[in-house]
Model the fold of this input.
Amino acid sequence: MDKAKKKKVVKIVLISAAALIVLAAAGFASIQLLVINTASPYIKELEELEPADAVLVLGARVYEDGTPSPILQYRLDYGYEVYDKGLAPKIIVSGDHGSKEYNEVRAMKQYLLDKGVPEEDIFMDHAGFDTYDSMYRARDVFCVKRLIISTQRYHMYRSVYIARRLGIEAQGYAAPDIMTKKLYNNLRESLARVKAVLDVDLLHRAPKYLGEAIPISGSGIETEDEMPVSSQ
Done:
């Protein structure tokens, strides 16, 4: 192949690569806008929230002594505020209980019990391994139709988007955002939004663990199970 043909091939390859990069960037940006714009109208202040079947508090880090991390404490406080205002009669605490050594939902439940929430009003979702699983299980295990979600705003867009795409009438009440490493976390969340769209709109995947239905209209005591749920 002479030099002229080589240059032509290289040029075509470079143009094709550039076009793919542009398309990928456009697709990535479109997904961000889709998730944010879909969820934004449903993220509300406390006085704007409509009554729901339950408030769902999404899990986050718990320390070795069983104390919720500050970011999780805020989520629990905001979830409790919704419950205390009478906007939701039940609270679902959804998190990772994939081993005996790590149990987010136990710490979350204890925090709410210490605030005076009756045990029967707290439903423990031991298999909330990710946001998609938490929303799917809220619908299929706890039979929730109307939901208020408590998490930080950066995470709320994805949470509300998934819930509503799964057919839940979801609203969001955003807790204060105190995350560090904001650049890293925002990038990670942007990638998670792409995965969320794939999960809920294209793959329609089942959660890692489903189990029998425990309707939110019953008692949360039925969800008191100290056996870990494997995430594998």
The longest helix spans residues 3-39.
